Amino acid sequence: MTKENKSKSDKKSLIIRIIAIILLVAGIVLIFNKPIGDWMIRQNQQSTLSSLTKKKVEANKKKKGMFDFSKVKDMDAAKATKTRLKNTANAIGALAIPDVNMYLPIMLGLSDDSLSTGGGTMRANQTMGKGNYPLAGHYMTSNGILFSPLENTQLGQKVYLTDLKHIYIYRIYMKKKVDPHAVYLVRNTKKAIVTLITCADGGVNRWAVRGKLIDTEKATNKNLQVFKLNS
Question: Is residue 181 annotated as part of the catalytic site, yes or no?
Fold first, then answer.
């Protein structure tokens, strides 16, 4: 083999090796993308809940949120990791549905940062315990992450919300699948209710769960344990 042919052969082998390495790395990323994303989201949830304080809640309420639902994109590991590193998501409370093991921070608006951490408010200036308090969250196939437990809720179960000053207790009276464009669920109401929305049927439809306010309590260290804020 001439030196010229040998050089060409070496270059070809090098290119093949580089391509093989790229394909291997891409394969590994695809395999571990979901577990990494799920782990990051769990970390976002837990760290935000454990660091929640009245001072942070009041400061975050004054910030500007993003409420354009058309800009909401699917969740992935990159978005969850970015949120984890930036640590800029704005928590304004906590949500708990103990019967389905659902414990999440309530976030201001529907940005990627908000929805990779908890449930996002869907209207500006919505108020816990008054009118309709709608929250949206991503449905994840891994049980217990974000709004995935919502599909396991049943009528009569309790939903708890808190701004760390008061705890608002709702009882679920409606659970159904709706069209993705059911905007009436976001509109305000005269009655005090909570509305929880997440994807169903792979994004074709939405789960909509509603609860009516049945009690309001002053928040104490004891009753705040229902939210597992320090877990």
Answer: no
